[in-house]
Amino acid sequence: MKRRLTPAPRPTPRAPRRRAFGAADAAALAPLLSRLDATLDRAARLAADPVELPRRYTSPADQEVAGLLAACLAYGRADHFKPILTRLLDQLGGSPAAAVDAIAAALGAQPATSVGGPEQAALLARFSWFRYRFNRPADLAALLAAIGHQRAAHGSLGARFAALFAGAGGGPGALRPALAAFAAELRAAPPVAALLEGRGPRGLRHLLPDAAGPGAAKRWNLYLRWMVRGPDAVDLGAWPGLPRAALLMPLDTHIQRVARRLGLTHRSAAGWRTAEEITAALRLVDPADPVRYDFALCHLGMSGACPPRLTPAACAACPLVSACRCASAPAGPRRRPAPRTGRARTR
Hints:
Blueprint: H1 23-39, H2 42-46, H3 60-73, H4 78-92, H5 96-108, H6 118-126, H7 137-154, H8 157-167, H9 175-187, H10 192-195, H11 202-207, H12 218-228, H13 253-262, H14 272-285, H15 294-302, H16 312-317
């Protein structure tokens, strides 16, 4: 009786190693990003971006207040939140900074624990129209009062953030703790508790998220980009004393998709570490201003030029295609299978 030999198991093929983004990649990508940025139709793209509304104002005080309101509400679709933000800024009048300062001054005349006072009732009635997804009038009233309180206490939002940033040591490592402390102080401002009586803090916490949490704090980093970079055709430059080099990429679904295709990150989770990895890669392109191309890259995805599902036509028209690691090649002619040769196998 012959022994049956069991064939040796085939070795499991290793997954291809992902190549890290390096100096050579940065050198190849830099001119492509410059060309993308230079040819971007900013006027058309600003119409789909929340920064369009803070750009109405020329005063740094108004820009920092309008910018924070825009960043807080910049969740969901722009065509949904921009009309609400437009109505809010119109209601605040020609100077959003003066409006929130007046709100804080009026509430400051009441005891911090006072609930249902006339000034609170008037404020809630003034914004009774406000509804946006998770947020209600009490959340907005608390946010406006908190902004006004911080400005009264520290002179400006920019001055307070700069102090927190310096206190955390400065540099990129200080950004996250400074943002977390900045948001916590706004949420804990004296007028807030009474305005949220019966509502609870959840809605305000959504507007002012904790940067120390698991997410990428996209809206906070977007706000900082507006305030610190510029003034230019997009960003406001209202806080010029802070270093651009310390900024973090505002990470959303568009940035993550484009960044993965360019090899700036291989991470799939949209968290702070992914934003750090993308920023570190872009720091090889521009060490002094790593988020310089955020607007252009984000709108490359938002506009559909870099769609979720790649097509040969989209890739052929993309200015970054030569640096893309996932570009869809044009389909060639289909080959007919070669005829089989040899004797057919039988059981």
